[in-house]
Known about the structure:
Structural class: mainly beta
Number of strands: 21
Distance between the termini: 40 Å
Radius of gyration: 21 Å
Helix content: under 10%
Number of helices: 3
Amino acid sequence: MRKVPLILTLILTFAFVTAAQFPATAIIKPTLSVRAQRDLGYWKLPNAKNHWSWMPKVAFNVVGPIEDASFFTVEFTTPDGKPWFSWDSTPISVPAGGWYNIESEAVSSWWDKRSTILTGTFAFKVTLKNNLNGTLKEMYRGTYKVNKTFAGTPHPDFKNQYAFYVDQDWSVPIGNAFLSPATDPKALVLNIGMWFRGDFDSDRLAAYVFLSGKQISSTKNSNTGTSVRSKALIAEGDDKHEFYWVYWNFVFYNLRQADPDRGYPTATLFKNNPGNYEIKVLLDGELIRTTSFSIGPAGEIVDNGIAAKNGFAGFGTVIPVKVIGTKEGTLNLQSWKTDAFYGNPLQGFTIQ
Protein backbone atom coordinates (compact mmCIF):
# COMPACT_ATOMS: atom_id res chain seq x y z
CA MET A 1 0.00 0.00 0.00
CA ARG A 2 1.21 3.50 -0.80
CA LYS A 3 3.09 5.39 1.89
CA VAL A 4 1.10 8.26 3.40
CA PRO A 5 2.75 11.71 2.90
CA LEU A 6 4.34 13.43 5.88
CA ILE A 7 1.70 16.16 6.16
CA LEU A 8 -0.91 13.52 6.95
CA THR A 9 1.20 10.95 8.77
CA LEU A 10 0.83 12.49 12.21
CA ILE A 11 -2.90 12.97 11.86
CA LEU A 12 -3.31 9.37 10.81
CA THR A 13 -1.04 8.09 13.58
CA PHE A 14 -3.19 9.68 16.22
CA ALA A 15 -6.65 9.64 14.74
CA PHE A 16 -6.99 6.34 12.99
CA VAL A 17 -7.42 4.34 16.20
CA THR A 18 -9.50 1.51 14.76
CA ALA A 19 -10.10 1.28 11.03
CA ALA A 20 -13.31 -0.65 11.65
CA GLN A 21 -14.92 2.59 12.85
CA PHE A 22 -14.66 4.16 9.39
CA PRO A 23 -17.29 3.79 6.69
CA ALA A 24 -16.22 1.42 3.91
CA THR A 25 -14.98 2.77 0.55
CA ALA A 26 -15.31 6.41 1.56
CA ILE A 27 -13.37 9.66 1.44
CA ILE A 28 -12.65 10.78 5.01
CA LYS A 29 -13.68 14.44 5.15
CA PRO A 30 -11.06 15.71 7.65
CA THR A 31 -8.24 14.52 5.36
CA LEU A 32 -9.63 16.36 2.32
CA SER A 33 -7.84 19.52 1.25
CA VAL A 34 -7.98 21.79 -1.77
CA ARG A 35 -5.33 24.42 -2.37
CA ALA A 36 -4.14 26.68 -5.17
CA GLN A 37 -0.70 25.67 -6.40
CA ARG A 38 1.34 28.42 -8.01
CA ASP A 39 2.58 28.44 -11.59
CA LEU A 40 5.40 31.00 -11.89
CA GLY A 41 4.28 31.86 -15.39
CA TYR A 42 1.01 32.22 -17.29
CA TRP A 43 0.74 30.15 -20.45
CA LYS A 44 -1.48 32.67 -22.25
CA LEU A 45 1.23 35.32 -21.83
CA PRO A 46 4.51 33.35 -22.16
CA ASN A 47 6.60 36.48 -22.68
CA ALA A 48 5.30 38.28 -19.58
CA LYS A 49 7.76 38.33 -16.70
CA ASN A 50 6.71 36.87 -13.33
CA HIS A 51 3.08 36.55 -14.30
CA TRP A 52 1.86 34.11 -11.65
CA SER A 53 -1.10 31.83 -12.18
CA TRP A 54 -2.46 28.76 -10.39
CA MET A 55 -4.24 25.45 -10.65
CA PRO A 56 -6.03 23.39 -7.98
CA LYS A 57 -4.53 20.48 -6.09
CA VAL A 58 -6.83 18.06 -4.26
CA ALA A 59 -5.66 15.58 -1.62
CA PHE A 60 -7.63 13.13 0.50
CA ASN A 61 -7.53 9.75 2.18
CA VAL A 62 -9.88 6.97 1.18
CA VAL A 63 -10.80 3.91 3.22
CA GLY A 64 -11.00 0.47 1.58
CA PRO A 65 -12.08 -1.92 0.32
CA ILE A 66 -11.26 -0.76 -3.20
CA GLU A 67 -11.02 -3.41 -5.89
CA ASP A 68 -7.87 -3.98 -7.95
CA ALA A 69 -7.35 -1.70 -10.98
CA SER A 70 -9.61 1.02 -9.57
CA PHE A 71 -8.68 4.68 -10.04
CA PHE A 72 -9.96 8.10 -9.06
CA THR A 73 -10.94 10.85 -11.46
CA VAL A 74 -11.08 14.45 -10.23
CA GLU A 75 -13.02 16.79 -12.51
CA PHE A 76 -12.68 20.56 -12.12
CA THR A 77 -15.04 23.25 -13.36
CA THR A 78 -14.73 27.04 -13.59
CA PRO A 79 -16.91 29.55 -11.68
CA ASP A 80 -19.35 29.68 -14.61
CA GLY A 81 -19.86 25.91 -14.39
CA LYS A 82 -17.92 25.01 -17.53
CA PRO A 83 -15.57 21.98 -17.61
CA TRP A 84 -11.98 22.97 -16.92
CA PHE A 85 -9.84 19.83 -16.80
CA SER A 86 -9.78 16.37 -15.22
CA TRP A 87 -7.09 14.19 -13.66
CA ASP A 88 -6.86 10.42 -13.22
CA SER A 89 -4.94 8.70 -10.45
CA THR A 90 -2.84 5.61 -11.04
CA PRO A 91 -4.72 2.31 -10.55
CA ILE A 92 -4.84 1.14 -6.94
CA SER A 93 -6.29 -1.50 -4.67
CA VAL A 94 -7.00 -1.11 -0.96
CA PRO A 95 -8.00 -3.91 1.43
CA ALA A 96 -10.96 -3.60 3.76
CA GLY A 97 -9.96 -1.49 6.74
CA GLY A 98 -6.94 -0.02 4.94
CA TRP A 99 -6.55 3.52 3.65
CA TYR A 100 -4.75 5.24 0.82
CA ASN A 101 -3.75 8.83 0.10
CA ILE A 102 -4.65 10.43 -3.21
CA GLU A 103 -3.06 13.67 -4.42
CA SER A 104 -3.95 15.16 -7.77
CA GLU A 105 -1.27 16.55 -10.04
CA ALA A 106 -0.81 20.30 -10.18
CA VAL A 107 1.55 22.58 -12.14
CA SER A 108 3.77 19.99 -13.78
CA SER A 109 5.86 22.74 -15.42
CA TRP A 110 5.93 26.48 -16.00
CA TRP A 111 3.20 27.69 -18.35
CA ASP A 112 0.99 24.72 -17.61
CA LYS A 113 -1.99 25.12 -19.94
CA ARG A 114 -4.37 24.13 -17.16
CA SER A 115 -3.32 27.14 -15.03
CA THR A 116 -5.52 30.21 -14.69
CA ILE A 117 -5.58 33.69 -13.17
CA LEU A 118 -9.32 33.58 -12.39
CA THR A 119 -10.69 33.92 -8.87
CA GLY A 120 -14.11 33.04 -7.51
CA THR A 121 -15.99 29.90 -6.47
CA PHE A 122 -14.84 26.79 -8.32
CA ALA A 123 -16.18 23.23 -8.16
CA PHE A 124 -14.80 19.71 -8.31
CA LYS A 125 -16.10 16.15 -8.38
CA VAL A 126 -14.32 12.93 -7.37
CA THR A 127 -15.33 9.66 -9.01
CA LEU A 128 -14.08 6.12 -8.34
CA LYS A 129 -13.87 4.04 -11.53
CA ASN A 130 -12.99 0.49 -12.42
CA ASN A 131 -12.74 -0.50 -16.08
CA LEU A 132 -12.43 -4.20 -15.28
CA ASN A 133 -15.96 -4.47 -13.95
CA GLY A 134 -17.36 -1.33 -15.59
CA THR A 135 -18.29 0.43 -12.35
CA LEU A 136 -18.40 4.16 -11.65
CA LYS A 137 -19.23 5.74 -8.28
CA GLU A 138 -19.33 9.41 -7.36
CA MET A 139 -17.38 9.82 -4.12
CA TYR A 140 -17.42 13.56 -3.44
CA ARG A 141 -18.63 16.83 -4.88
CA GLY A 142 -17.52 20.19 -3.53
CA THR A 143 -16.71 23.85 -4.05
CA TYR A 144 -13.81 26.07 -3.00
CA LYS A 145 -13.29 29.81 -2.99
CA VAL A 146 -10.11 31.23 -4.53
CA ASN A 147 -8.91 34.77 -3.80
CA LYS A 148 -5.66 36.55 -4.50
CA THR A 149 -3.38 39.04 -2.77
CA PHE A 150 -0.71 41.20 -4.37
CA ALA A 151 2.75 39.79 -3.62
CA GLY A 152 4.90 41.77 -6.04
CA THR A 153 6.35 45.27 -6.17
CA PRO A 154 5.53 48.43 -8.16
CA HIS A 155 8.32 47.55 -10.62
CA PRO A 156 6.77 46.60 -14.01
CA ASP A 157 8.55 43.24 -13.99
CA PHE A 158 6.73 42.19 -10.81
CA LYS A 159 3.33 43.84 -11.19
CA ASN A 160 1.61 40.52 -11.98
CA GLN A 161 2.81 38.61 -8.95
CA TYR A 162 -0.34 37.62 -7.10
CA ALA A 163 -0.50 34.91 -4.46
CA PHE A 164 -3.63 32.83 -5.05
CA TYR A 165 -5.19 30.98 -2.13
CA VAL A 166 -8.18 28.86 -1.19
CA ASP A 167 -10.00 30.37 1.78
CA GLN A 168 -9.79 27.84 4.64
CA ASP A 169 -11.32 29.97 7.44
CA TRP A 170 -14.22 27.51 7.67
CA SER A 171 -11.89 25.01 9.40
CA VAL A 172 -10.98 27.19 12.37
CA PRO A 173 -14.07 26.62 14.60
CA ILE A 174 -14.06 22.84 14.01
CA GLY A 175 -11.90 20.71 16.32
CA ASN A 176 -11.77 17.10 17.33
CA ALA A 177 -10.95 15.10 20.45
CA PHE A 178 -9.82 11.48 20.46
CA LEU A 179 -7.92 8.86 22.40
CA SER A 180 -4.94 7.27 20.66
CA PRO A 181 -2.28 4.62 21.32
CA ALA A 182 0.44 7.19 20.73
CA THR A 183 2.79 5.57 23.26
CA ASP A 184 0.86 2.60 24.67
CA PRO A 185 -2.16 0.75 23.19
CA LYS A 186 -3.25 -0.28 26.71
CA ALA A 187 -3.22 3.28 28.02
CA LEU A 188 -4.74 5.56 25.39
CA VAL A 189 -3.78 9.23 25.60
CA LEU A 190 -5.85 12.35 24.99
CA ASN A 191 -5.42 14.21 21.68
CA ILE A 192 -7.02 17.52 20.76
CA GLY A 193 -6.77 18.75 17.17
CA MET A 194 -7.67 22.18 15.80
CA TRP A 195 -6.81 24.63 13.03
CA PHE A 196 -5.08 28.00 13.34
CA ARG A 197 -4.41 30.78 10.86
CA GLY A 198 -0.80 31.93 10.83
CA ASP A 199 2.74 30.61 10.87
CA PHE A 200 4.09 30.04 14.37
CA ASP A 201 6.00 27.30 16.17
CA SER A 202 5.33 25.27 19.30
CA ASP A 203 7.39 27.67 21.45
CA ARG A 204 4.69 30.30 20.92
CA LEU A 205 1.70 27.97 21.16
CA ALA A 206 0.62 26.11 24.30
CA ALA A 207 -2.46 24.10 25.23
CA TYR A 208 -3.73 23.49 28.78
CA VAL A 209 -6.32 21.07 30.17
CA PHE A 210 -8.52 21.84 33.18
CA LEU A 211 -10.79 19.64 35.28
CA SER A 212 -13.13 21.35 37.75
CA GLY A 213 -11.18 24.57 37.29
CA LYS A 214 -7.83 22.97 38.10
CA GLN A 215 -5.03 22.72 35.53
CA ILE A 216 -4.04 19.07 35.12
CA SER A 217 -1.89 19.07 31.96
CA SER A 218 -0.19 21.26 29.38
CA THR A 219 2.02 21.06 26.31
CA LYS A 220 4.53 23.48 27.85
CA ASN A 221 5.97 20.61 29.88
CA SER A 222 7.37 17.85 27.66
CA ASN A 223 6.64 15.31 30.39
CA THR A 224 2.91 16.00 30.19
CA GLY A 225 2.29 16.97 26.59
CA THR A 226 3.47 18.12 23.19
CA SER A 227 2.25 20.19 20.24
CA VAL A 228 2.53 18.62 16.79
CA ARG A 229 2.21 20.69 13.63
CA SER A 230 0.53 18.13 11.40
CA LYS A 231 -0.67 19.84 8.23
CA ALA A 232 -0.34 23.25 6.54
CA LEU A 233 -2.36 24.82 3.72
CA ILE A 234 -0.54 27.89 2.46
CA ALA A 235 -0.68 30.53 -0.27
CA GLU A 236 2.54 30.18 -2.25
CA GLY A 237 4.26 33.53 -2.65
CA ASP A 238 2.59 34.99 0.45
CA ASP A 239 5.81 35.94 2.24
CA LYS A 240 3.89 37.48 5.16
CA HIS A 241 2.09 34.15 5.77
CA GLU A 242 -1.23 35.93 6.11
CA PHE A 243 -3.06 33.18 4.24
CA TYR A 244 -1.61 30.23 6.10
CA TRP A 245 -3.75 27.62 7.85
CA VAL A 246 -2.16 24.97 10.09
CA TYR A 247 -3.63 21.94 11.85
CA TRP A 248 -2.08 21.38 15.28
CA ASN A 249 -2.47 18.22 17.33
CA PHE A 250 -2.03 18.53 21.10
CA VAL A 251 -1.07 15.28 22.82
CA PHE A 252 -1.35 15.00 26.61
CA TYR A 253 0.77 12.10 27.88
CA ASN A 254 -0.43 12.31 31.47
CA LEU A 255 -4.14 12.10 30.57
CA ARG A 256 -5.04 8.48 29.80
CA GLN A 257 -8.18 6.45 29.53
CA ALA A 258 -6.86 3.70 31.82
CA ASP A 259 -3.60 2.22 33.06
CA PRO A 260 -4.02 -1.54 33.60
CA ASP A 261 -0.27 -2.16 33.83
CA ARG A 262 0.25 0.76 36.24
CA GLY A 263 3.02 2.18 34.14
CA TYR A 264 1.92 5.81 34.57
CA PRO A 265 1.54 6.44 38.30
CA THR A 266 1.23 10.24 37.93
CA ALA A 267 -1.33 10.18 35.09
CA THR A 268 -4.93 11.31 35.47
CA LEU A 269 -7.07 8.35 34.44
CA PHE A 270 -10.33 9.20 32.72
CA LYS A 271 -12.06 6.04 33.94
CA ASN A 272 -11.61 7.35 37.49
CA ASN A 273 -12.42 10.97 36.65
CA PRO A 274 -15.55 11.33 34.51
CA GLY A 275 -16.87 14.82 33.96
CA ASN A 276 -16.34 17.96 31.89
CA TYR A 277 -12.86 18.94 30.73
CA GLU A 278 -11.84 22.33 29.35
CA ILE A 279 -9.03 23.15 26.90
CA LYS A 280 -7.41 26.57 26.68
CA VAL A 281 -4.78 27.55 24.10
CA LEU A 282 -2.37 30.48 24.40
CA LEU A 283 -0.41 32.15 21.61
CA ASP A 284 2.43 34.33 22.89
CA GLY A 285 0.74 34.16 26.28
CA GLU A 286 -2.61 35.43 25.00
CA LEU A 287 -5.76 33.28 25.13
CA ILE A 288 -6.93 32.49 21.57
CA ARG A 289 -8.93 29.22 21.87
CA THR A 290 -11.21 27.45 24.31
CA THR A 291 -13.12 24.22 23.89
CA SER A 292 -14.44 21.41 26.05
CA PHE A 293 -15.44 17.76 26.04
CA SER A 294 -16.94 15.26 28.46
CA ILE A 295 -15.66 11.94 29.78
CA GLY A 296 -18.18 9.17 30.47
CA PRO A 297 -18.19 6.57 33.26
CA ALA A 298 -16.02 4.09 31.32
CA GLY A 299 -13.34 6.72 30.63
CA GLU A 300 -14.52 7.31 27.07
CA ILE A 301 -14.94 10.67 25.36
CA VAL A 302 -18.67 11.29 25.15
CA ASP A 303 -19.52 11.27 21.45
CA ASN A 304 -22.03 13.81 20.15
CA GLY A 305 -22.57 11.76 16.99
CA ILE A 306 -21.58 14.52 14.55
CA ALA A 307 -18.69 12.59 12.99
CA ALA A 308 -20.86 9.52 12.36
CA LYS A 309 -23.71 11.63 11.02
CA ASN A 310 -21.37 13.29 8.52
CA GLY A 311 -19.59 10.18 7.32
CA PHE A 312 -16.27 10.15 9.14
CA ALA A 313 -16.81 8.19 12.32
CA GLY A 314 -13.44 6.99 13.54
CA PHE A 315 -11.71 10.35 13.27
CA GLY A 316 -12.65 11.34 16.80
CA THR A 317 -15.41 13.37 18.37
CA VAL A 318 -16.11 16.70 16.69
CA ILE A 319 -15.93 19.60 19.13
CA PRO A 320 -16.76 23.27 18.54
CA VAL A 321 -13.83 25.62 19.14
CA LYS A 322 -14.29 29.17 20.41
CA VAL A 323 -11.91 31.65 18.76
CA ILE A 324 -10.83 34.59 20.90
CA GLY A 325 -8.95 37.76 20.01
CA THR A 326 -7.44 39.09 16.80
CA LYS A 327 -3.90 37.70 16.83
CA GLU A 328 -4.67 35.68 13.70
CA GLY A 329 -6.09 38.62 11.79
CA THR A 330 -9.66 38.97 10.61
CA LEU A 331 -11.32 35.55 10.38
CA ASN A 332 -14.61 34.70 8.74
CA LEU A 333 -15.83 32.44 11.53
CA GLN A 334 -19.29 32.04 9.98
CA SER A 335 -17.98 30.51 6.76
CA TRP A 336 -18.29 27.00 8.23
CA LYS A 337 -22.04 27.25 7.59
CA THR A 338 -21.52 27.14 3.82
CA ASP A 339 -17.86 26.37 3.11
CA ALA A 340 -16.98 23.61 5.60
CA PHE A 341 -15.37 20.61 3.93
CA TYR A 342 -15.58 22.48 0.64
CA GLY A 343 -19.30 23.04 0.37
CA ASN A 344 -20.33 20.12 2.57
CA PRO A 345 -21.00 21.72 6.00
CA LEU A 346 -21.44 19.57 9.07
CA GLN A 347 -24.95 18.50 10.00
CA GLY A 348 -25.77 19.05 13.67
CA PHE A 349 -22.77 21.31 14.35
CA THR A 350 -22.90 24.76 15.98
CA ILE A 351 -20.04 26.99 17.08
CA GLN A 352 -19.58 28.57 20.50
